[in-house]
What we know:
Blueprint: H1 2-28, E1 38-42, E2 46-49, H2 50-54, E3 57-60, H3 67-81, E4 85-89, H4 95-105, E5 112-115, H5 125-131, H6 140-156, H7 163-188, H8 193-201, H9 207-211, H10 213-218, H11 220-230, H12 235-254, H13 257-274, H14 277-283, E6 299-302, H15 306-330, E7 340-345, H16 353-359, E8 367-373, H17 376-383, H18 388-396, E9 400-403, H19 409-419, E10 421-432, H20 437-442, E11 449-460, E12 479-486, E13 498-504
Parallel strand pairs: 3-8, 3-9, 4-6, 4-7, 5-6, 7-8
Antiparallel strand pairs: 1-2, 9-12, 10-11, 12-13
The structure holds adenosine-5'-triphosphate and magnesium ion (MG).
Amino acid sequence: MNMARSMKAQISQKLVSLRRRLFWNQASAITPWSLSTVLLKFNDGELWTIQDACQGTQCFGSTGSGKTTGSVAAIAESFLLAGFGGLFLTAKPDDASTYLRLCEKAGRSSDVMLFRPNGTYRFNPFDSELKRRDAGAGLTHNVVAMLSALLEVSERNQANGGGDSDGYWKRANRQLCLNCVDLSVMAMDRISVPDLYRIAISAPTSLEQLQLDSWKASSFCYQCLMDADKVAKGASRKLDFKLVADYFCLEWPCLSDRTRSVVLSTFTSMLDVLNRGLIRDLMSGETNISPEMAQDGKIIIVDLPTMLFGEVGVFTQVLWKYCMQRAQERRDVQQNPRPVFIVSDESHLTVVKQDQVFQTTARSTRTAVVYATQSISNYLATFGSDSEAEVHSLLGNLQSKFFHQQSDIKTNQYAAELIGRSRQYLINASSSKSDTDYFASLFGQRQGQSTGGVSECYEFEVHPNDFAMLRKGGPPHWIVDAILYQGGRKFGPSGKSWVPVSFKQSV
Ligand SMILES: Nc1ncnc2c1ncn2[C@@H]1O[C@H](COP(=O)(O)OP(=O)(O)OP(=O)(O)O)[C@@H](O)[C@H]1O
Ligand SMILES: [Mg+2]
């Protein structure tokens, strides 16, 4: 029994190394990490390369249509076989084990870094961002952008009126966030969630309070202002400090009580999530894992699935994604051209508006982003009303789109429109006969009438209903179908920008 098991293990090990050797034989014929390196081959002829991967991928399909076990699994496995480093975000409780299996299958288990509760890795995104001042990072602006992404997520869960006032609250939150971060850096040269929290809640609530000795003695905000004032500063930093001091000593206390309390509670409720339990343990101490490690081939799996950990899971994944994007933007791809992937299944749970901005430059940073979600309606619901432009901007920069079996009308309509219409010919024929025809024919007269013709029209190349009929996998064949649409591409002899593809399921 044991012998059989060890032989099986040896054979599977040999198969893995053979697959990798096969991959590298074709890859080494061209420069390593060349953009034309083939990752996937569809229908024995359509090649999907590193260049295609770095232009972004979106998989759509109803629940159970085969996204996770079909397109996402095949694409992720091709990245692993090609030696990419990367980041797997998780949504469902068994996602991490699925990705671990894929890594094992591709012979990449030794590169895996599992970021999970009670694990060995800790990552403080705020501090690591600040410590990279020399590399063009470390600006408080980056930390504020990171916190803004979290604010966006936490605001989604609160009904805050919308409309014009929505923009006001966002700006007000961002302003508080920026001033707290700036004051923290000026006074202590560090950023931590507890410090930001203490500054925000101890800021003066009226001009009278500002004069009180009792407030001065107990306010952390006041203490930071005094410390920041004492630090030697250049001309530009002096101006920054003046802005911060004006904000806390003039603007903030003069806001109406209601406005101030709404802004403060939005900010502190977001910080509160970061400041407690699991997420505090994992993300506010010393750092021993960083997104840059993916650039050396490490595979980071964030095992805090959103469905299990709720807001904590969402915040953790949003932070990881944000930091990976910034790390990729900072990298010199001439020196290190290894592609890095970000795979986010159930992407609507962790998508933020900044993703759309990153996606506009993802290709030049060699980041292969793969998003999968059920429908376009998921994104619209996540981004809120009037978000069509943002959703389409994001989708426009995810050039490869795999459309699986689908029953959402909006997504089917979108896919059909995207693929487009072409000139098609309809053949029609008709015949008519009246009651007198029988007798008329007996006397050799004309029998009824027949007409026929061909008409030209512009029709959908793939009709919205066609997406409902694609195979979803499962026994006995385990085959998943999709329509691959790729902007600016001409597939095979048809010369069309779309092609039907199939995946053998990986379950
Ligand atoms: N282990 C398994 N045994 C039998 N059938 C399976 C197994 N795993 C997946 N399937 C079937 O394969 C199909 C595709 O599953 P998959 O999880 O890839 O869908 P999905 O598009 O990712 O769905 P969701 O949006 O719910 O995540 C489903 O119909 C499912 O029933
Ligand atoms: Mg799935």
